[in-house]
Amino acid sequence: MSDSQVQSTIYLITGATRGLGLALVSAIASKDPTAIIYAGGRETSLTTSKVVDLATRYPGRIFPVKYIAGDELGNRALAEEIRGAHKRLDTIIANAGIENSTGKVHETTVQNYTDHFAVNVMGPIVLFQAFRDVLKASPHPRFVAISSAMGSIGLIEHIPGNNAPYGVSKAALNWAVRKIHFENEWLVTFPQCPGLVDSDMLREAKKRDTTGTFEQVLKNFVVRTPDEVAVILVDTITTSTREEDGGQFHSVDTGRHVW
To answer: Where do the TM regions start and end (predicted)?
Structure first.
């Protein structure tokens, strides 16, 4: 997996075996014929998911790799693998995340908060820690975390729904990414809200909601397919600059969200 083409852009996308992550892999491979993409996912999904089909369709350009959110040793090993192959990594899209419970703040268990924080907050933080030096070797480094409007404190009253652990974790993620922006003047980094995506996560959230609140929310927003969202995100990410986009809370629906 040597990077013989200096002009190639090297990507790592986490949570890449289904939904938006998979669509991002496909969109980048289709748009940029020189892109090399590491598609991260749990080991059990790497041999059975559609990402394997994409790797076959784009030989030598897409590499399914084991990724577990928050696994410090595993993240460092992957960073060394990519460093050894290319000496750098140009763009990380930290897409892996969970949203698997519904509840108000007082109804949600401590374990539920802990589970969401471990994946949605510590996952991207550990990822950045492991890859910081490899990103810094790139002439155009980018670190983009997939977030959610649910993590906006300023929008709480406008987005009803009982999703305390998910919202808390995404708010914390937003803080961490914005702080990374100010601590690393060489980097383009920002949280990105993809809007409502017609994915397994969305469908499972609808099933869990017995109050009908979530169904009402859906009527007020556009629900896009993963492929539709991926095209928008790839354009935003590949054209982003530190001056215009760094440290901002991006949204496919409004351009920018309030924090």
So the answer is: none
Q: What is the Cα 202 distance to its own chain's centre?
A: 15
Give the position of tokens 């969109």: 27
Interaxial angle between packed helices 19-31 and 50-57, expressed in degrees from 0 to 180 and rounded to the nearest 10: 10
Output the CA angle 225-93-158, nearest 5 degrees: 55
Q: Which two tokens stand for residue 38?
A: 């590491």
Q: pLDDT by residue (tens digit) across 192-218?
A: 999 988 877 767 766 666 666 667 667
Name the amino acid, one letter, at 228. Answer: E
How many other C-beta atoms lie within 10 A of the C-beta of residue 225? 13
Stretch 63-86: mean pLDDT: 97
72 or 159, higher pLDDT: 72
In whole angstroms, give the CA distance from residue 173 to residue 103: 20
